[in-house]
Amino acid sequence: MSDVVLFDKKEGVATVTLNRPDRLNAVTGELRARLRETLDDACKDDEVKVIIVTGAGRGFCAGADMEGLAATSEGRSQGEEISAEERNYAANNVKGFDGGFSYFPTLPKPIIAAINGPAAGVGFIMALYCDIRFAKEGAVFSSAFSKRGLIAEWGVGWILPRLVGIARANDILFTSRRITAKEAETMGIVNKTFPEEEFESSVFEYAKELASSVSPRSVRIMKEQIYNAQAETIEENLKSSMHAMVESFDSEDFKEGVSHFVEKREPKFTGK
Question: What one-character DSSP code corresponds to residue 64?
C-alpha cells in the first residue's frame, strides 16, 4: 500500500492524513484512490466512530498537482489515472453524491476536516464536503479556479452557496482571492479556528467526545437526513423525518440513551 495517505486510530477516532508534504499534499490520481480506500477501511472498522482528515506538514491540500495541470494544458496525458480498488464500499442512504470528493456525505461516519494550512482548488472542495471543518489560525483558503482559466468544478457551485450564500460564493469563486481562517470562520466555511499550539489537541478532543458520548446510529441517520433534505420539500422532509423517528424507538441506542440518562452513567452505545 502506498504511503501517500496515512492512517492512525486512537480512542474511537481515525486520523487520515494526506501525505505529500513536499507538494503541500497536492492531489494526484494515486492520492485520490488511496484516500477513498483508507476512508472505506475506517468506515468498516467497528472501533472507529469518527474520522479526521488532515494534511502532513504545513498544508492541508494545495489542490490538483500542478505537473498534471500543466500536462493537461499542453494537451498531454497526465499519466495513468489510478483508480480505487474494486470493493463493496461502505455507504449510508445519501443519494446522488457520487463524484470527486462529493462522496464524503455518503460515508456512514462523520468526517471532520482538520485544516492545518493552505486549502486551495480541489483541496478547498475536499474540505467543504467534510461534515465539520476546523482550521488552524494560519490556514488560508482559495478556490483558485478562475486564475487557472477553470470553472466551478467538482460540485463546488452546489456546496459553497449552501454554506455561505450566493453573494459570498460568487466573491470566492469569481476572484479566487485568499481567505484567512478567521474570515472563513465568519463566513461559515469553517466551524471554528484554533491557535496553532492548540489546534491538533482541540480537534482530537472534539472528535473523541463525539466518538464517546453520542449514538453512532443517531449521527449516521442525521447525516443521511441533512444531505438528503437538500433535495426534499418541507412536506417530504417532515414525512421522512417522522418515519425515521419512529424507527429510532426500536433501536438499541434509543434504549441505551434513555437508560444511561436515568441511571446517571456514561453511555454504552452500540450504533444499532
Answer: B
